[in-house]
From TrEMBL:
Keywords: Cytoplasm, Isomerase, Manganese, Metal-binding, Rhamnose metabolism. One of its GO terms (biological process) is L-lyxose metabolic process. One of its GO terms (molecular function) is manganese ion binding. Residues 158-177 have a biased composition (Polar residues). This is L-rhamnose isomerase RhaA. Residues 158-183 are annotated as: Disordered. It comes from the Bacteria.
Amino acid sequence: MIQESLVCKAYELAKERYQAFGIDTDSVVEKLFQIPISVQCWQGDDIGGYEKRTGASGGGILTTGNYPGKARTADELRQDVDQLRTLVSGKFRFALHAIYLESEQPVDRREIRPEHFARWTAWAKDRGIGLDFNPTFLPIRWQRTALLFHPPMRKSANSGLTMQKPAAQSVTASDGNSAPLVS
């Protein structure tokens, strides 16, 4: 493990070099701490999510979801994120995919509503964390083609999750095309 004194010494050397160019590294670091970092939900459970569904994940995702200690429930993932926040400095955001909704019954992704994220929202508000919502396009029963934005599929692809205000999101589909989704 790297000793803290070595890290501090290396920073002081770098600081001197940058000062020669008129750069105040302490000021830069302070500014960096003001930029929120959005941690992806799937980093806590290998993109398993918590939607109630049947069948294998498929969709070309090469994850096993079986690493030791992974979050098995949304509550465990929230606890893991709380622990992470004690270890990471600066502002913090949390990015949720659609499959991290919480519901006792299966919910078609086209029917996802804000109430399916009520516990996430309450948790985030309680901690002053911003939430970023992301669509989940893998695997979707009604996605019959890799051309997600093919005209016959457009209605399904554009049925997004509407939260408090309209938002535009650029999403790269599995065919490599990018199209803005506006809800």
